[in-house]
Amino acid sequence: MTRLPAAGSTTSQEDEAITIRVSIQFFDGCPSWEVARTHLEEAARQLALDLDVETQRVDTLEAAERLGFIGSPTIRIAGKDPFAHPGAAPALVCRLYATPEGLGGAPTTAQLVAVLAKQVQAT
């Protein structure tokens, strides 16, 4: 697990900062998880958030089913996949995300900013 501290945080700010747990699930056949992580890091910087980021490799269909992994990358924020579509089946596939620019292998930074901001409001 990697901790991404809020941009410009100091000791007193860290004590008050909200830390959000994020998991990036992936399988080796799809490199888009690295793009997702970069976008996530930028979103955290923009919002001055602390994130605890865990990367989790998913190797088998059985693991995908157990984890609710519906493609690489699957991003879970505070345990939930905010980009999941109802009825999506677990699978070892490269996942596509609807972005303002069209389909992409990862959500945009702006999409992650929106999701993280909602999570902050909910806490």
When the domains are counted, the total is 1
Helix-and-strand structural type: alpha+beta
Radius of gyration: 14 Å
Order of helices and strands: EHEHEHEEEH
Strand content: 15-25%
Gap between N and C termini: 21 Å
Largest sheet properties: 4 strands, mixed
Shape: globular
CATH architecture: 3-Layer(aba) Sandwich
Helical residue percent? Answer: 25-40%
CATH topology: Glutaredoxin
Report on the structure:
The chain has 123 residues and is α+β, with helices and mostly antiparallel strands. It has one domain: 3-Layer(aba) Sandwich (Glutaredoxin). It is built from four helices and six strands, in the order βαβαβαβββα. Strands 1-3-2-4 form a four-stranded mixed sheet, covered by helices on one side. Helix 2 crosses helix 4. The longest helix is centred in the first third of the chain and has 16 residues. 25% of the residues are buried.
Helices and strands in order:
Layout lengths: L1 E3 L6 H6 L2 E8 L5 H16 L2 E8 L3 H7 L6 E4 L19 E3 L2 E3 L4 H14 L1
Parallel strand pairs: 2-3
Antiparallel strand pairs: 1-3, 2-4, 5-6
Helix pairs in contact: 2-4
Question: In short, what is this structure?
Answer:
The protein has 123 residues and is α+β, with helices and mostly antiparallel strands.
Features:
123 residues, alpha+beta, Glutaredoxin, 4-stranded mixed sheet, 35% helix, 24% strand, globular
